[in-house]
Each structure stands twice: as C-alpha cells, then as structure tokens.
Amino acid sequence: MLILRLWNYIRGYVIILVEGFFPEKFINVCINRGIFLWDINREKSCVITLKVGMKAFKKLKPIVRKTRCRLQIKDKKGLPFLFYKYRKRKTFLAGCLIFIGMVCFLSSFIWDIEVYGNKKISTQVIIDKLSSTGLKTGIWKPMVDTDRISNQIMIQTQELAWINIDISGTRAIVEVAERVMPPEIIAQDVPCNIVASKDGVLTSIFVREGSPVVQVGSSVKKGDLLVAGMVESKDMVVRYVHAMADISARTWYEETVNIPVSRIQLRITGIINEKYSIRLFNKIIGFGDSRPPFEYYDLEKVVRQISLGNDNQLPFGIIINKYIEKIQVKENISLEKAKEEASNAVWEKVKSKLPENSNITDRKLYVAPGKNSVRARMLVECLEEIGLQERITY
C-alpha cells in the first residue's frame, strides 16, 4: 500500500467530485474502460468523491458526457503539481527530493516493535529476547528472518507456547501465547508419599496405594504426611511404592478489612500542564524543567509519531506529557456506605485466595463499626482436595 501511494503521488492525481442521478454508472464505465479509481466515498445520494491519476483524468470527459454527470476538481496532489507550483525555486525542489529519498530510505527499517498476548511474561523481557536474536529497532527489514527468530525464541523460552512475527511497514507485530505450565507429575515407578497441601480437617480418605497415617476427622497442617509410600508385608519386608489416594478436607480462608469513615481523597482540579519532548530514533530530548509541576497529579502520555499511513512510522515524533493537577480533599462517608464497602472489599480479598472451582460450603461475615472506621471479617469454609505427591528421598 505504501508503494502504491508513493507511486500515485509521484505520477500525480486529482481529487474530483462527481454529481449526477446515477454516479454508480460513471464508476462502472470507468472500470470497464480500465481507468483506476480509488478512495471512493459517497458524500450525498447523488454526489461521490474519488481519486484518479493525472493521465487517466484526461479520459473522463467522454464518460462524463455519456453518463450525464457533472465533474468538479476539488484538489490536485502529487509531484507534478508540486514541481509546477515551485518550478522557479530549484533549491526547494531539491530539498523535497532529498526529503522523499530519506523517507523511502528510513521506511526500509523497523522502528517500532509491538507485543501482544503476553500476561505473565513482561513485554520488555520479550523485546530483549527478540533483540538478542536479531529483531530490534533500527534494523534493516531484509535482514530479519522471522521464522529463524521465532524458532530461537521458542527454544530459549519455555513459558511460550507459540509466537508469530509479522512485519508490517516499519512495525514488527509480535503475537505470543503463553504456555500453561502443568504441575509436576511424578512417574508411576517413582516412590512417593502424599502430604497435605494446606491446613484442614479431613473429611474423606480413599487410598489406592500406600499406607494411610491419618484418619477422617484429623486436623492436619500443610506438609503433614497423609499417606506413606512405604508398605510393610506380613513377613516384615518393607517396600517403597508410588502412593495414590483421594483425600478431601474442610479448609478455611479468613480475611479482615478496615474502611475509614473519614478519609483523604484526591480530586481533579481541571488544571493541566503540558511538557513537550522530541523523540529522535531512540533518544528523548526534553524542553524546560522535567520535574512534575504539581504535588499530586495524573499523568497522560501522548505520542505523536510521524508516519506514512498506519504501519509506516518514522523514528521521529513528539511526546506530550499531560500533568492533571489533583488536590487532597477530606471526605466523610455514611456508616451504611462504609459497611457496604467493607463487605465488598473483604469478599474480594478472600475470593482472590480461593482455588479455582472451589466448593464453598459456608461463608460468614462479621461487620463491626468502630470510632473512626468499620471493620469487616469474613470466614469462608471450602471442601477441596488437599493431597499432594512428594518424592521419597532416601
């Protein structure tokens, strides 16, 4: 697309407005006669705008007459019109040619790397790995072997299940999928015990292999031995086995939260201070004092990159840091609202600790108002599997 736009700009084109009862007929006749039109937009029911090359524009007169449309030139674009306008300013024309040459040259490099799909692995870690394998900002695009880089990244990074690298203009778009690491599985021929993965009270024990050392109703702590991988026969011969059992227990999760009824909030005043800096390649050049203008603030960063289209960003741009002032305001909330906030906050805190697909059997909430705050305590009881295999070390 970039090459096509540059080619049309070099040849020159005009933006025209076509008005008539059947502008679609005008477009169909042009296509049948091999006239290339692009960026066709309908302005009104009987009015369309489009772009056509300078040479093809000369062929439109008989088509306009045939389709009974009216044609109006809205604008003229391209080098031929630019050269004609500045034909007497040779230095300016030379500068334009040099600028176009520089843009074309810089467009053959990669200036931006975007990473998508990562949650656990940080973007910077992936970018560092890409850089070590040959994909980094400023590299010439023909030197980038995406298949080789993808294979090396997959070999080096066990946390990734899939990676795809797509070069679009001056951007490298990297999509990854993280691997879900399975729990360690001990082979069937390796002797092991079963220990408690967390505190609880045992509700059921079903042993398929091994010697149980606890009973239903026993209280256990994390790491306590539940089923031994050691079996003693009638003739006092001891052998080691791979213990296997299904062990369920009642477990508890408890959290406490305090919500103050009087607190300091930060509110936006509406005053905004902007600080500007310029990006040249990988360097940031700031202007003026770089320190934040306010004690409390929100920061919004706006990057305006110079680009040719969406995918062809050049290594130049302006960075605008917007500092939005905030001030401290004392706020008092009602007791009922504080109770509601405390209840929601303590539940979210407990919920973050619960295992996936946990079977909640009971949930108790205690809310007690104090002098300057509201205290909420929640106790959640679950029924879950707590058996964990552990290798036997001799």
For the termini, the CA-CA separation is 68 Å
Helix percent reads 10-25%
Task: Please identify the top-level CATH class of the largest domain.
Answer: Alpha Beta
Supply the CATH architecture of the largest domain: 2-Layer Sandwich
The CATH topology of the largest domain corresponds to Alpha-Beta Plaits
CATH superfamily of the largest domain: ACT domain
Mean pLDDT: 85
What's the total number of strands? 22
Uncertain runs are none
Task: Tell me the β content.
Answer: over 45%
Label the structural class.
alpha+beta
Specify Rg, calculated over alpha carbons: 35 Å
Count of DSSP H/I helices = 9
The shape is elongated
Main sheet specs: 5 strands, antiparallel
- Across the major sheet, the strand order is 11-9-15-21-20
Number of discrete domains: 5
